[in-house]
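Teaching assistant here, posting this on the class forum so everyone can see the example we discussed in section. The complex has two components, and the goal was to see what a joint structure prediction looks like when all of them are supplied at once.
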Amino acid sequence: MTRLITTIAEMRDIRASLTGRVGLVPTMGSLHDGHLTLMRRAREQSDVLIVSDFVNPLQFGPNEDYDRYPRDLDGDLAKVDGLADYLFAPSAEEMYPAEEPFQVDVGRIGTVFEGAMRPGHFNGVATVVLKLFTIIRPDIAVFGQKDAQQLAVIRRLVRDFNVPVDIIPAPISREGSGLARSSRNAYLDEDGRWHALALSGLLKDLSGRRMPAPELLHALEQARATSSTDVQWDYAEAVDPATFEPIDSSFTGDAVVIVAARVQGVRLLDNAEITVGT
Amino acid sequence: MTRLITTIAEMRDIRASLTGRVGLVPTMGSLHDGHLTLMRRAREQSDVLIVSDFVNPLQFGPNEDYDRYPRDLDGDLAKVDGLADYLFAPSAEEMYPAEEPFQVDVGRIGTVFEGAMRPGHFNGVATVVLKLFTIIRPDIAVFGQKDAQQLAVIRRLVRDFNVPVDIIPAPISREGSGLARSSRNAYLDEDGRWHALALSGLLKDLSGRRMPAPELLHALEQARATSSTDVQWDYAEAVDPATFEPIDSSFTGDAVVIVAARVQGVRLLDNAEITVGT
């Protein structure tokens, strides 16, 4: 039986009694198969698994509907049964008792790509994750590689604030076609799913290869310019994994190709690692 | 013998081996009697005392001379001998290996009073203190009440990020005259010291009393308006201890009276707690 914890004080008491490696999977609840995959990944590397279930108001913009974000604590508890030892589900008042709490300022990485679309979002993410790390003191924490920019923010968070947590990326889950799994895929019809393969198709052509920067930059430019009008690119770029600054033609080393596009009005994200060099 | 520690890895290893209550006194080095008072206060409440000795570049503004801030590690080691068990003195590269590190954003409290004079200062203070708390995991940490706004920032830091550290204020040390001790007092001549008593004199009249807000606000206005032209007030205000917002005439509860003034070109600070109510 998964034990439900709703207060920070109880979470701390229980943490103090735990031995062995403690794993954390932070979630905003409304759990689905993707979350369960993260949990299985965490279980492989930990003796005790804690799942946090908290809809973080700080990471919602004024035009994003925090109040209407789905919440289903009973359903979540049922889903993690047998997989997580503890479900930490504090209220917003428990996590943010004061007005205008101090926040982590992630600087420039919070203002580009997904951060440009959602001002303040990554500051809110970094703030709540730092709080969870301070309260729960996990040895490892698992984050999906699908949200590559979030993963980069979390890696810098633990580095810059010296938080002793190993950040474990969980690989992107894909359908047989290559399409990255997302609950939003349900909004695509058959034609849309076919067009959506432009994202994973581009990444499949590039990933795992070693390619000079000019060749990579040219390939991305071509992809953006020549794809079907049914695919509206927000971006398709190669970026530095730590800063999310676009690479230039003299770049060598590990990069991430990040892509975002709208297909049938549905916003799709994908990414892959690539080694840039001659 | 105080043991010198210069790397975060060694500090963590040693911390993991410590038992009992661990106390921390964060300093920027160039230790003087005021620091030793903070250390004695920390010793009273801890079994092991760690003093950090780090000139934090993040809390210096572009026009403040970080490079010329005095450093005297050998002198500091000699001074803490017999008082501190460990002196943690990492390099700037050890604490900030990356460019543009994530920082704590303290919000509005960082922009008023001392924060207005030093934009970004309190963000830098909060960032380094959070890092020290994460690395050292002290049970208690001592900060001087003299820097009231810094103390307020640190108290909110541990509250907002759920850091399990007890923040212990050390009372303001005063000369027989009442003048708050400061290394800057050495720049005052006899006449200047006499005028400087305007600060502590005002606080002495107010502190420990229970006074309605309108009466307190009137007293502060009078003090600013009627004092000698040899005392140039930056501010003399009653503020909320958590937010440092000036109280209004309907305020009740605990407040802090904060004063800053220039006497003979020397900037002096002082403060006192007061209960506001009918």
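For the discussion questions: Chain B has a mean pLDDT of 96. The first helix of chain B runs from residue 8 to 17. Think about how each of these relates to the inputs above.
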